[in-house]
Amino acid sequence: MALKDDYVTVSQAASLIGVTRQTISRWVKQSKISGEKIGREVLISRNELDKYRSNIRDRFVQNVTDAVIDVIRQRFKYSEKDKIEPIYSSSCYEEEHRENVLNFSVKRKDGSYSEVQTRFRISQEKPIIEIKIDEI
Length: 136
Hints:
Elements: H1 3-6, E1 7-9, H2 10-17, H3 21-29, E2 35-38, E3 41-45, H4 46-76, E4 83-93, E5 97-107, E6 113-123, E7 129-135
Antiparallel strand pairs: 1-3, 2-3, 4-5, 5-6, 6-7
């Protein structure tokens, strides 16, 4: 396998993750991701980039899940003692938007059980999250 298949430039890394070149350079300097200086170019391992991208995605999913749980609590007036957990998720891609479906189980403090389905879209052009919630 050629070197160019295993490594990407700072510009390519920025494009793949969706950040600026300056952000990638800062992450390398801060040792958030490792880069190899070869000549005048800093190269980043594709494996390293994939790990970092996966970590970003996992944190994003956790943050969205936490935010959706907060919205569910407010909308259905569930208390902090009611246990809300994700049980199913799926994604559907369209041209500009990605629609995600998250189902949650809700076990109330009184022992009753229900499920809540959420659908949300994340716009590629604007940082907007639209959430629709139904108790099922």
